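Handout, page 2. Input:
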Amino acid sequence: MKETILLFNLADKQTRRKVELALFPLKLRLRYIPKDQYNQPLGSLAGLGDVPPCEACYEGEELPDTMLVFAGLSDARLNQVLLALRRSKSGTFPYKAILTPTNQFWTAPECFAEIAREHELMHAETPMDQPTDPSVNLPKN
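Output:
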């Protein structure tokens, strides 16, 4: 599979240009996915032949934020991409995913919802009045 980045809801032209300039030297395939294709499986959008496309057009809401899906990148290449995006000052992209055997059949809204849920869990704060270490409540001998 050719190294591909699927870009969803990246409408701002200036941000788009910064992303393109940052990633051009890496010779990756960038695919800007229009909203009417959000019901297509991610694997199909990335060019996986064994993931069939969906016939219907998406008619739902736009994603709440930009989402990037990385397909066919090694860990080293992914790190290069993330570094290039950081250096480009194109903004932060908190909703990112790597195409996997599990999510290759998901649609963009399904993937976004899962990333948002995981993002919320990772950034949930522990209440200040509750200890984070369970040994804190152990009786002292």
